[in-house]
Amino acid sequence: MIVLGIETSCDETAAAIVTDAREIRADVVLSQLDDHTPYGGVVPEIAARAHLEHLDGLIRRAMSEAGIGFGDLDAVAATGGPGLIGGVIVGVMTAKAIAAARGLPFVAVNHLEGHALTARLTDNVAFPYLLLLVSGGHCQLLAVEGVGRYRRLGTTIDDAVGEAFDKTAKLLGLGYPGGPLVEKAAARATDPARFELPRPMLGRPGCDFSFSGLKTAVRRHVEELGGMAGGVLSDADRDDLAAAFQATVAEVLADRCARAIRRFKEDHPQGGALVVAGGVAANKAIRSRLSTLAETHRMPFVAPPLRLCTDNAAMIAWAGIERFRMGESDPLNFAPRPRWPLDPNAAPVIGRAGVGAGVKA
After folding, report:
1. For residue 230, what pLDDT band results from cuts at 50, 70 and 90?
2. Which of 105, 204, 240, 299 is the least crowded, having the fewest Cβ atoms under 10 Å away?
3. How far apart are CA 115 and CA 281, in angstroms?
4. How far apart are CA 243 and CA 178, in angstroms?
């Protein structure tokens, strides 16, 4: 089975060719980083226009690299949500057009499911497994019990962890995107233990997350160091504060995961792997901390290759394969979904500001 995958949910335009033998024949990604950096974040209208301009060319490139034509495809899969609706529409409409013209099945993939199933593409991880999904828009702990069977154990009550990285990077004057820039700054730190930051939710019952208080604490330190109102932090201050932030996030994630592991093992005493996915899973310090945690609990630890942690179309093609070989596909009148939770039965979590958490899901 050969499937074309299309990903356009945020600020990467991507196309990939993947087979049911877990072979990634082509995986091309065009980052829009240069387009959004001047604004300090993703501008939805700019993102949608960039997807529209580049997607056709990326699909042609992926097909060429894979050495196939449209007649060799068995299905077309595209991110159907959640995400920035303009970009999702571009990808879905392109996939529908190919499917209609070639008489192919169309599979609308939940972007989060793409991340959730990546470990099965790269490592053939068996169900069930415990998933920590961490990215710029999402922070969830889920029991992955099968394709389309996800049970949420915890979520953020305010910011996603990737969003906290971006905001911290902005406060430190590092730029955008925050994740890799904070990680680089932290690696240069000379005194990583210099700053004391709060550990939101650490030791609290349940598996939920909170990062807004941590972001506020970083801001307070920046103000005290004279880095606000036009001031500039010294290199040492910036790097040490970045290291403190990163270490705090890793500790909080490990604490929440430890609680989720206990809950997961109650329901699945036969065990399973601890899997981390999403853009923040590319952070080496966080991967190391979670790997140690999994070893402590005698669980296999799986983190996809760095390239497949960030948004890509290979994961969308693979999720499409997983669904299609179960006999599932979608009609061509499928409507793109800006919100699409993996666990629709999970109760909404209301944060301190009275706003529903995880609104991007």
Report:
1. low
2. 204
3. 11
4. 13
Q: Prior bond to 338 cis, omega within 30? A: no
Q: How far apart are CA 181 and CA 72, in angstroms?
A: 41
Helical segments of 67-134, H only: 85-102, 111-123
Checking 142-148 for CB contacts under 8 A at 24+ apart, the result is: 142/116, 142/342, 142/343, 143/264, 143/267, 143/268, 144/116, 144/117, 144/275, 147/113, 147/117, 147/322, 147/323, 147/326, 148/113, 148/323
pLDDT single digits (tens) 337-348? 999 999 999 988
Here the tokens at position 90 are: 């571009």
What token pair was written down for 77? 């899969």
How far, in Å, CA of 120 to CA of 2, rounded? 17
- Lay out the sheet containing 106-110: strands in order across: 24-31, 12-19, 2-7, 75-81, 106-110
Residue 86: which pLDDT band, with cuts at 50, 70 and 90? very high
pTM (2 decimals)? Answer: 0.93
Contact 129, 351 (CB under 8 A): no
Supply φ then ψ for residue 253, to 5 degrees: -60, -40
Beta strands (DSSP E) in 172-304 are 274-277, 301-302
